[in-house]
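[audit] Reproducing an earlier prediction to check determinism. Same input, same settings, fresh worker. If the tokens differ from the archived copy the diff job will pick it up downstream; this log only records the rerun itself.
[audit] input (79 residues):
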Amino acid sequence: MASLGAPSPSTPAPPSPVRIDGSVDQTSGNIRCEGDLVIAGNVLDGLEVVAGGAVRVVGVIQAANVDSGAGLRAEGGIS
């Protein structure tokens, strides 16, 4: 008869992405995070976004620096 043994450890779920509910602008300042990032608005001129994971921008990326460790999706385009 086979022994069931100890249950194998389950793989933890990946953390939820950090969400910015609006634009990255002078009010929010530059954004840095270790994981995935979702920006619901635009990334305005002169600002910087750095993420260790994937970055999704729902709006437009203007003349800004966006650095992603795992892919970039600019749904509104890049101007």
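[audit] rerun output stored. Observation attached for the diff report: The radius of gyration is 18 Å.
[audit] end
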